[in-house]
Amino acid sequence: MLGLFKRLGAPTDLEMRIAGESLFNDGVGVALFLLLLPLVGDGSVPTTGGALWLLVREALGGIAFGAIAGWGALRLLRSVDEYRVEILITLVLVSGGFALANASGVSAALATVVAGLIVGHHGRRAMSSLTRHHLDLFWHLVFPGTRSRRKPDRIGRPFAAGSECDRYRSQTRAPTSVAAVA
Hints:
The protein is an all-alpha fold. It has one domain (2-172). The protein has seven helices and no strands. The chain has helices at residues 2-8, 12-41, 48-79, 83-104, 108-126, 129-142, 164-172. Helix 2 (12-41) runs antiparallel to helix 3, helix 3 packs parallel to helix 5 (108-126) and helix 4 (83-104) crosses helix 6 (129-142). The longest helix is centred in the middle third of the chain and has 32 residues, at 48-79. It is globular and about 55 Å long. It starts with a helix and ends in a 10-residue tail after the last helix.
């Protein structure tokens, strides 16, 4: 579905919403799978109370866990202005948050989606354009099917000349000539 959106040139916001809804549905699907698993395993039928508790624990627990983790990561992101650290914060949020949610017995998929939505919506506003650029590049490397939220300028680069990214490049560029060391 997302491949079709990309080929048709659908707006990135629509693509993100569909992807988020798809991940949310996956989390609900996992919770339903866990509910029905005992039927196949030992043939036991879960009680209504047990089924409701499982769904509440998985779904609401995953959403609550993701909200807490997302807001915690957001506070960290707002306290730092170094793109390398901010990329690591998002990486720890995704991988560590998933592992902790899974170990806690809540839906790790829902927790990760909710945390990602919080950081993706509120965290991007707090980031510099350089950080957003590097963050998009990093996550595009991890998930090649994603598109950058920024539109390229006329010459195809994600930033126009004179931007913060160009200033960073000029400060870190290696010298064109190297003096020989005797």
